[in-house]
């Protein structure tokens, strides 16, 4: 699982680089909140629209090259977006980066599940790689962009080139044969899987909404600077890493469905407390706890989705890691419109109630066939 942890971390670093750079596009280029949320929309479109086809392809063919190629495209698109001179070019490059992310997740999720077997903890390690990448993006990018400007995103292209080469070498050693069958077998249950996808999309709205507007909330409402906004975003993502890892262990104890419900129920009061806090330092602690709660169901959703579709692990990973995560970005222009009219605090207020819907729908999820047997 080690190589998949690191590959996922590098890949999702570029997914996290987009929200980390958005405040600097606003400050340096004068983008409106709607224009800024449009960049999040571009990333969401690129990483969500190709996912169904790519998931079907990796369930039928090995396509060992797809994960390293997708990682390379993800890094190049996100890295070149900062130096791009005009908004349409920036938007297109971020869209291209999203397409690279769309290519990485189904193949990586399929092969990581083969390596993990039936362990939720092992899959949480793979999922945590993505959370680590999200965390590292603002932690590394914020001071660099604050010093050198938004064009410094180009300095983050080399890790994509290096990791793509390492992953390509690893995949080449596996040969061109189809991946070994996953131990969990049974019938595909599309009804529960579609419901699970809705739950995952709702979680994604909260996660991407926080990623997009946390720094802007600190700058525009709490009166902190851009660096402090980056600190707040980093705190949220550090909490996300902890929540992803904790979710796998909690699910092995209380069950996957209960973990999804628990994460949604905890997130609501924490987000409300964050919204009511006027102290930027206290708010940083609260936003870290919010990251734990929002990300607790992440790996569990991936594992449960593959249990619902045991013969289609690539499709399940493509949807739960790709479409469901990225589709939340489709709602970012709505939050951007709220922020343009009423300030970034309005976007955070709207996000306070969203996790309750995910927890309610999770009550309707049936157990996987393996649990029922």
UniProtKB/TrEMBL annotation:
Pfam family, one: MFS_1
UniProt-annotated location(s): Cell membrane
Lineage top rank: taxon: Bacteria
InterPro entries: MFS, MFS_dom, MFS_trans_sf
Organism listed in the record: Nocardia jinanensis
Residues passing through the membrane, by range: 33-58, 65-83, 89-108, 120-140, 146-168, 193-219, 225-246, 258-276, 282-302, 314-334, 346-365
Protein name: Membrane efflux protein
Membrane-topology descriptor: Multi-pass membrane protein
